[in-house]
Amino acid sequence: MDPELTFSPEDTGKEVVTAAGDVVGTVTETDETTATVAPHEAISPELLEQLGWDATERETYVLTADDVSGITEDTIQVGGTSWSQ
User: Fold this and answer.
1) CA distances from 85 to 22, 46, 52, 73, 81 (A)
2) SS (HEC) of 21-74
3) Please, which of 14, 26, 53, 63 could form a disulfide with 35 given CB 3.0 to 4.6 Å?
4) What SS3 state is found at 9?
5) Distances from the Cα of 18 to the Cα of 6, 50, angstroms
């Protein structure tokens, strides 16, 4: 992703997806450098591990610009430079 990526309030409510189209969760809050994500209820432990998120039952996780490979009008796609595949 663009190293100068910033998140905006318009990103709140967007689905977070993988390149394969798996829904990770929904953005609940943003600031310029992070997006807070409520995980999808059916997210697998394997996907949590790929994202570098712990598998404990957390209500939210945090994305940074390095975690993101693209932002569209409706989604934020994970798979950025810090994402371990």
Assistant:
1) 14, 10, 9, 25, 10
2) CCEEEEEEEECCCEEEEEECCCCCHHHHHHHCCCCCCCCCEEEEHHHEEEECCC
3) 63
4) helix
5) 19, 10
Buried b (16+ CB within 10 A) or exposed e, 20-53: eeebbbbbeebeeeebbbbbbeebeeebbebbeb
| The one-letter amino acid at 52 | G
Report yes or no: 12 and 29 within 8 Å, Cβ to Cβ: yes
The encoded tokens of residue 27 equal 């953005």
pLDDT in tens, 12-46: 999 999 888 889 999 999 998 899 999 998 888 88
User: Is 70:77 a contact under the CB 8 Å cutoff?
Assistant: yes
Tokens of 61: 């996780």
pTM across the whole model: 0.83
Please check whether residue 65 is in contact with residue 78, taking contact to mean a CB–CB distance below 8 angstroms: no
